[in-house]
Amino acid sequence: MLADVFTLYLKAKNFHWHMSGPHFRDYHLLLDEHAEQIFAMTDDIAERARKIGGTTIHSIGEIVRHQRLKDNDEESVPPKAMLSELCADNQHLTEALRSTHRICEKHDDVATTSLIETWIDEAERRTWFLSETVRHL
Fold first, then answer.
1. Global pTM?
2. Please, what is the Cα angle at 80 between 77 and 81, to 5 degrees?
3. Domain containing 128 — which CATH number?
4. CA dihedral defined by 64, 50, 98, 128, rounded to 10 degrees?
């Protein structure tokens, strides 16, 4: 999960930094807001893993080995494609969060399920904003 969150964070910042076009300001600010929200998850995920006796990410290489979301290394991506890709990635993250939530429920990990419920709501909100924006492009 942490690898995917770091991947989504970096992709949101990448698109934030490389946004262009007539709606630059709105999209630039939207993606910055999304990136901040996504990055805020990282410490909580890592600390929950440690609190329940696990380990967490040690390096960029480890992120690469565990990520399920795909990077986007394209030199130029049109705004609609950027927003669509982030929308799909947030949908995938929501699915992964729901799956993790079910596992945590089975193990009576109330603290983690509570955090995940907040992250699901945030991911669904990001998906909603992105899908509505893309729909009108």
1. 0.95
2. 45
3. 1.20.1260.10
4. -70
